[in-house]
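Would you mind writing out a protein's amino acid sequence and the numbers that encode its backbone to help me picture the idea?
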Amino acid sequence: MNDISVVDLRGFIAVAESGHLTETAQALGIPQPTLTRRIRRVERAVGASLFDRVGRRLALNSRGRAYLPHARAALGDLAEGGAKVARLMDPERGTVRLDFMHSLGTWMVPDLLRDYRALHPGVDFQLHQGAARVLIERVLADAADVALVGPRPAEAGDTLGWHQLELQRLALAVPEGHRLAVEGPVDLREAADEAFIGMLPGYGTRMLLDRIAGGLGFTPQLVFESMELTTVAGLVSAGLGVALLPLDDPYLAPQGLVLRPLDPPQHRELGLVWRAGAQEAPPVDQFRRFVMGV
């Protein structure tokens, strides 16, 4: 099929609707021969004549009538696509694909969205929850624009941008009445022989547990793995084991358990990641600057 342009299709549709070549050319502000060439390009592209001359009028034949709705649909799709691109480039009407860890869905994410939407009510958000490692891969694969994750990923500074938002001190959580349920910091090695409640592999706190314990020379004996820190805390309070938890998560109520800061201190970094070198996207760029406080 020969190439045809948007203006060729517009010319074809205009003549099909008016039935007059000269008048249509005048309405479009172009010479009649120019409009005639546009019609001919469309006919060459489809491989058939689309009009019959009836007196001084041009009337669509059966082939033209069959083609007309598709030409209109094509122009409609192109217009819709252009409108969507324009919307993506409008920081006040675009879409931000925001991923975040489950543990941030009770405080950080609602707070950010509430404050941002008060300033920019026309912006849409596509939200996705998941494990930190999965969210990082989604950002790298352009399935998400930005993600709120922790700890700081290894790709930060290379293929990922990173901005730290929170630094939470980590603690060993033990049930009340446990042998380690005393005040003061604790060396995680004191719990090396304990049963651990942990997050599933790939989740941020699980990555921290594996890294810290590995650096201390032991592998935690996990008796249950969860997707939610609140579940981990609840099972610790029920006496099923001990866990690594952040000290100052505002929605992680430590009822029935004791939180002992790790010694030496260890922290859970929480921050925003985005794909380094990503193309300009004003709605995303504006939201990222807001989160970063720039």
Notes: The CA atoms of residues 32 and 188 lie 85 Å apart. The first strand starts at residue 51 and ends at 54.
